[in-house]
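Troubleshooting log. The previous structure file for this entry was overwritten by mistake, so regenerating from the original sequence record. Sequence copied from the archived sheet and checked twice against the printout by T.R.
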Amino acid sequence: MLPLSLEQLIQELSKLPSIGRKTAKRLAFSILEKPDREAHHLAEAIVQAKQNISSCNICYGLSEETVCSICANPKRNQDIICIVEEPKNIYTIEKGGFYFGVYHVLHGAISPIHGVSPDHLKIRELESRIQNTAPKEVIIATNPTIEGEATAHYLTDLLQDRVNIISRIARGIPSGSDMEFADSVTLTRAFEGRTDYFRSQ
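Regenerated output below.
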């Protein structure tokens, strides 16, 4: 029988995405084998991240400041807003180095079966932002899942009278998958091959 403290550590680690009990157990033993200083650094890093990181007041991505470095960058094209489901999607796209607009994070996707309605997402904030900044194009980069597609159609219907161009990233990403696992080449092709959902005359 494992010591109680070790069992608790394994249980907490196994709550992380893609971490089963076997992997959690291996990580827990690895942490115990590290010098006390390194273990304390790991614990402190987790605490600091939780305390210091919050949402950007503009795009709702992650930031240690009121406004994130992307929104605050004058070199970014403010006329193009890329809508993503989660903050992590921003870093997946940024890694490719092909997109130079700004972002808006919904913090989820519409899913009636899971009780997630448009009111649970940052959609009202998106409407207000578009009204205030009048972007030329909105790129919908939600995941190619049933929920992501439903969200894309909802946003198109909602915004088509407010934005000249509404586009959807192409099918370079396999249906049903998460953008997080797409490589840079696939994402680049998905953005370059994006199709118009709506274009005003």
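The radius of gyration is 20 Å. Archived copy saved in two places this time.
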